[in-house]
Write a structure and sequence with these properties.
The protein is built from twelve helices and 18 strands. It is of the alpha/beta class. It has four domains: about 110 residues, Rossmann fold; about 110 residues, 2-Layer Sandwich (Transcription Regulator spoIIAA), CATH 3.30.750; about 100 residues, Transcription Regulator spoIIAA; about 60 residues, OB fold (Dihydrolipoamide Acetyltransferase, E2P). Helix 7 runs parallel beside helix 8 and helix 11 packs parallel to helix 12. The protein starts with a strand and ends with a strand.
C-alpha cells in the first residue's frame, strides 16, 4: 500500500475536527496527504448520518473509489461506521470500518507497529490543523439527550468529556502559535463536566477566554434546556467571548417539541432568549429547525413561523425531516409530503431573510472588528465579525490579511452579509 492518504469529510464541525486527528495519526506513520484521491493508497470518508441526503453521498462515493483506484484501501468512519444496514450495503466497497473512538487502533488494520498514542483516547491525539488562525477544539464527544429524531447518541455514544486542563493546555498551545480563533465544540457544550473536578462549561469557557493573547473564542452547540445564567454572564462580561449564541429550537410548537423529546417548552425557550438579549445587547442568535416532523400540521408549523418572527434570528439551518434508523421518530409515520416540507422550508427562509436583514442594519455606518479568513478572486478580502456575520472588504489593493484582526467601516448590508472598507486605509 502506498503511504498516501486522502480524506473526505461530510457533515459537522466535529467531523472536521476528527479528520484533523486522523490526518495527524497517519502522518505520524509517514503517510502524506494527497489532493488527488486517485493517487492515494488510503481513502478515508468521515461520514455523517444526520440526514438521508448526507448518508446517500456514501453510496455513490465508495463504488466510485473502487472503480477509479482499485488498489487503494478504503476506510469508513464517522456516524455511519456502526450501522449494520450501511455495512451490508457497502460490504464490497469498504475495507476498514472504523468507529472514531477506535482511531488509536487503526495501525492494526494497516499492519503497522504501535505508536505511543495507540492506547490513548482518540481526542488526545493531536490535530493536523490546516487553518493558520482558527482551530476547533473538541471538549467531548457523544450525547445523552436522545431527541426522538436524532441518531447522534447511537452513532457517537454517551457523553464523554475531556479534563479542563487538557482543553486549556491545547488552546494555549495554539495561541502560542499565533492562532486568533478558538472554537470549543461538542454535541452539547452545556453538559460539559470535567471527569475529575467540579468544572462546568461556564468555568471552562472563562478559563480559555482568560488565556493571554489577541484572540477570541466561540462555542457550539448548546441545548436550550441546559443554558445557565452563569454561561450568559461569562459571555456578557468577557470581551474575548464572541457575542454569538447558537442553540437549536427545532420547532415552535409545544406538542411537536414533546414528540421530539426536547425537554423544554416554547415558553421556556423564549425566556432563555430574552435573558440572553437582556444581558448581551447586540448578540446574534442562530438556530436549527426541522420542518415536516411526523404529524406536524399547518397550525403547528404556523407556531414555528411565529417564533421565527418573534425571535428575529440572525441565521437558521432549516432542514426537512428525514427518518433516521434506530431513532424513535423512525417508527412514526412520515406523513408530511415532500412538497409541503419544501414549502414550509421556503416560508421560514423568507422570514429569516427579513429578520437577518433587519438585524444587520445595526452594523451600518459602524466600525467593527473582523477576523479576515481569506481573499476572493477579485482581490477583495472576507472574514467574520464576532457575531458570525460574513463581512466583505471592498479594498483590493492590499496584501493578504488572512488571520488578522482588522477594523472595518460597514457601508452596506444585505440579508446574510456586510460590506465595508478598512478603517485607516
Amino acid at each position: 500500500m502506498k503511504k498516501t492518504f486522502h480524506i473526505i469529510t461530510i457533515g459537522c464541525q466535529m467531523n472536521k475536527s476528527d479528520s484533523e486527528r486522523i490526518a495527524f495519526y497517519l502522518e505520524s506513520y509517514g503517510f502524506k496527504s494527497v489532493a488527488d484521491r486517485s493517487k492515494a493508497g488510503l481513502i478515508i470518508v468521515v461520514t455523517c448520518g444526520i440526514r438521508q441526503s448526507a448518508e446517500d453521498r456514501n453510496y455513490g462515493l465508495f463504488p466510485k473509489f473502487k472503480k477509479e483506484n482499485p488498489k487503494a484501501k478504503t476506510v469508513l468512519t464517522g456516524c455511519l461506521s456502526k450501522r449494520k444496514d450501511v455495512q451490508k450495503r457497502l460490504k464490497k466497497y469498504v475495507d476498514i470500518w472504523l468507529p472514531i473512538d477506535d482511531l488509536p487502533e487503526l495501525h492494526k488494520h494497516l499492519g503497522l507497529r504501535s505508536k505511543k498514542f495507540a492506547h490513548r483516547q482518540y481526542l488526545e491525539i493531536e490535530p493536523d490543523v490546516k487553518s493558520l488562525f482558527s482551530v476547533f477544539i473538541p471538549i467531548g464527544n457523544g450525547c445523552n439527550n436522545f431527541c426522538s429524531y436524532c441518531v447522534v447518541p447511537y452513532a457517537r455514544g454517551r457523553e464523554k468529556y475531556r479534563p479542563a486542563k487538557e482543553i486549556v493546555d491545547e488552546a494555549r498551545s495554539f495561541l502560542k502559535k499565533g492562532y486568533k480563533e478558538i472554537v470549543l465544540i461538542a454535541q452539547n457544550v452545556n453538559s460539559y463536566q470535567d471527569p475529575k473536578k467540579n468544572i462546568r462549561f461556564p468555568q471552562l469557557l472563562k478559563k480559555v477566554a482568560g488565556l493571554k493573547g489577541n484572540f477570541w473564542v466561540r462555542f457550539s452547540s448548546s441545548h436550550p434546556k441546559d443554558i445557565s445564567d452563569d454561561l450568559i454572564d461569562v459571555i456578557a462580561e468577557n470581551d474575548k467571548v464572541c457575542k454569538h449564541f447558537h442553540f437549536a429550537v427545532q420547532s415552535g410548537d409545544n406538542e411537536v417539541l414533546r414528540m421530539m423529546n426536547r425537554k423544554y417548552s416554547v415558553e421556556q425557550y423564549r425566556a432563555v432568549v430574552n435573558r440572553i438579549k437582556k444581558k448581551v445587547p447586540g448578540i446574534a442568535i442562530t438556530t436549527d429547525v426541522i420542518v415536516g416532523f411526523p404529524g406536524e400540521n399547518k397550525k403547528q408549523f404556523a407556531n414555528t413561523k411565529k417564533l421565527f418572527n418573534d425571535i428575529s434570528y440572525d441565521m437558521a439551518y432549516i432542514s426537512q425531516f428525514s427518518p433516521r434508523p434506530q431513532t424513535v421518530a423512525a417508527r412514526f409515520k412520515d406523513d408530511v409530503p415532500k412538497v409541503e416540507k419544501k414549502r414550509r422550508e421556503e416560508e421560514l427562509m423568507k422570514v429569516l431573510r427579513r429578520t437577518s436583514m433587519k438585524n444587520n442594519q445595526f452594523f451600518l455606518n459602524k466600525n467593527i472588528k473582523v477576523l479576515i479568513e481569506g481573499r476572493k478572486k477579485d482581490g477583495s478580502s472576507f472574514g467574520k465579525n464576532e457575531q458570525g456575520k460574513v463581512v466583505k472588504i471592498r479594498d483590493k489593493k492590499i496584501g493578504d490579511l488572512s488571520g488578522k484582526f482588522v477594523l472595518v467601516h460597514i457601508e452596506e448590508v444585505s440579508d446574510f452579509g456586510l460590506k465595508g472598507s478598512l478603517v485607516g486605509k
